From TrEMBL:
It catalyses: L-arginine + H2O = urea + L-ornithine. Pathway: Nitrogen metabolism; urea cycle; L-ornithine and urea from L-arginine: step 1/1. It comes from Dyella telluris. This is Arginase. Belongs to the arginase family. Mn(2+) 2 binds at D126. NCBIfam families: rocF_arginase. Keywords: Arginine metabolism, Hydrolase, Manganese, Metal-binding. Signal peptide: none annotated.
Amino acid sequence: MVNKAISLVGVPTDIGAGHRGASMGPEALRVANLAARLTRRGLDVVDRGNLQGPLNPWQPPVDGYRHLPEVVAWNQAVHEAIYAELGEGRLPIMLGGDHCLAIGSISAVARHCRDTGKTLRVLWLDAHADFNTAEATPSGNIHGMPVACLCGNGPQELISMGGQVPATSAPVFRQIGIRSVDEGEKRLVRESQVSIFDMRHIDEVGMKRTMEEALADIDENTHLHVSFDVDFLDPTIAPGVGTTVRGGPNYREAQLCMEMIADTGRVGSLDIVELNPAFDKKNQTARLAVDLVESLFGKSTLIR
């Protein structure tokens, strides 16, 4: 693994989501003992507490975006916090919050990669492609737009956050577990040429081959960012999300996915997003997320 110094950064907001409750995600992950479990793996874990930002006004969309000023404020806070942790040589784990926050975290990681001459690779573990725009979105919820924004397709305040437009480019992304793409979004995804390993692909070739393809050509100079949306997982094992989509990876597939990412030794930053305790059962989804994050940081059955 690249780094043994870990910083947890809580971002308690559901500002970009269509359901309330993702704001409670950071606390649920803490209750599930994320820090202690990673410390037990020999990592130096510091919990930086929670970032502050505007309350969710719960308003309808304006010009195709819901809560744009508030989304900008939260993402700016995320960007600065994550960029600072990377600058101190630490590995930041963003505890979300909804997935719009990846605009702040990934723009910060991209900026850090430009500073250090690293090559960025983003593994986007999600049921959704999150490539919507104001024109294509059925809801205006910005948690459906972060990848588009990071690739330069979105409102100026969000696409310019890292000081460069676009913050990243489509070839940086490998999207895994996708099984829900809005009609208008399908064309955008195809035109962008983002690499998508959807559930059909996983069904056809298996998780092992899928991950080999997604992790191909990673080298010593790669900064690997994992953006883990908990709705990546099948809702039978992870009910605690606002946007469940049937037919996701099962427990073993998810474990293999995380273990193969860990095997690269190149993980440099992580988002855990869209955990919604309001829909969970006895915090089981948070506990599962923590279990998988342990595997991402090298927990395995045997010493390999």
